[in-house]
Amino acid sequence: MRFNAPENTTWLISALLIALGIFLRLVNIPVASSFDFLLVTCGGIMMLLGTLFSKL
After folding, report:
1. What is the pLDDT of residues 1-53, one digit of tens each?
2. In this structure, what DSSP letter does residue 53 have?
3. Taken in order 9, 51, 49, 45, is the CA torsion positive or negative?
4. In the chain, where the domains are located
5. Contact, 50 vs 13, CB < 8 A?
6. Nearest Cα to 23, choosing from 43, 7, 8?
7. 26 to each of 13, 18, 34, 36, 56, how far by Cα in Å?
8. For 29, which DSSP code?
9. What is the pLDDT of residue 14?
10. Cα–Cα distances in Å, from 10 out to 25, 29, 46, 54, 56?
11. Longest alpha-carbon distance in the chain
12. How far, in Å, CA of 56 to CA of 37, rounded?
């Protein structure tokens, strides 16, 4: 299996999702803090898919 570098926009969006999820874990915002794990998971999956598939 050959791995590829993700596109810049894919990398940026996934990094922002992960950073937002970590921020929401550290700062208690009642409505948004329940989505911290979901944001980090989606960002990680997006990064993984960007690495596995080219042009993503």
Report:
1. 788 888 999 999 999 999 999 999 999 888 888 899 999 999 999 999 999 98
2. S
3. negative
4. 8-52
5. no
6. 43
7. 20, 13, 12, 9, 30
8. -
9. 96
10. 23, 27, 7, 11, 7
11. 43
12. 23
Enumerate long-range contacts of 5-13, CB under 8 Å, 24 or more apart.
Answer: 5/51, 6/47, 6/50, 6/51, 6/56, 7/50, 7/55, 7/56, 10/46, 10/47, 10/50, 10/56, 11/47, 11/50, 13/43, 13/46
- Spatial CB neighbours of 39, under 8 Å, sequence gap ≥ 6: 17, 18, 20, 21, 24
Which one-letter amino acid corresponds to residue 16? L
Q: Are 47 and 11 in contact (CB under 8 A)?
A: yes
In this structure, which amino acid lies at residue 4? N
